[in-house]
Amino acid sequence: MQIISTLLNNLNYGTIFLLMLMESTVLPVPSELVVAPAAYHAAAGHSNICLVILFATLGADCGATINYLGGYYLGRPIIYRLANSRWGKMCLLNQEKLEKSENYFNRHGAVATITGRLLIGIRHLISIPAGLAKMNYWRFLLYTTIGAGTWNLILAALGWYLHTIAPEDKMKENIILYGDYLKYGLIALVALVALAFYGRHLWKKKSRKND
Question: Can you say how many angstroms the Cα of residue 153 is from the centroid of all Cα atoms in its chain?
């Protein structure tokens, strides 16, 4: 945790990539505390916002790949045993969370790797069921990039906007605003996920008519 704290206090493209890689595995690193502050600093002119999103998404892809490979090669018994181990508990992982992620994947299929990346609680675990199901890796990577990129874009927009209302010299005084606008961002996220499911429903309905 001290290492993570040090990385969060020294955000650059490399640390953004590393932290988002950790966040997409099973390590407790909230992406909200990485991408949004990095975008805030980008708005202040310390970095490039496009590169912030790019490196955050690349890190998420690499972390998700680690989870995918774990599910693909280790299999369900070993994965669940690890989740219930002392190490799993240290990473805030347990069988219930894994089952929730796997059930979500089983209900929604491959598209869950997109929508699942937008849901708090299972977003960093949705890659494991994809590996367990032996989903095609390149398809998995494409869907993960879309989902992770969308999430990072939302967080980056939030961090950028926060800088317009709480400049650096007043950041400490207005830190509470971050929590408020994060809430608004999550509301927008829920709406986005709902639209994704509605679009999928319309697509299936159209396919049935064509059949």
Answer: 11
Residues 6+ apart with CB under 8 A from 66: 21, 24, 25
Q: How confident is the model at residue 175 (pLDDT cuts 50, 70, 90)?
A: very low
pLDDT of the residue at 97: 80
CA distances from 158 to 82, 174, 176, 182 (A): 35, 14, 13, 7
In angstroms, the CA 187 to CA 185 distance is: 5
* Cβ within 8 Å of residue 15, ≥6 positions away: 7, 8
* Average of per-residue pLDDT across 137-153: 91
Short-list 112, 105, 113, 110, CA closest to 76: 105
- Chain centre to alpha carbon of residue 113: 10
> Is pLDDT at 189 greater than 80 in this prediction?
no
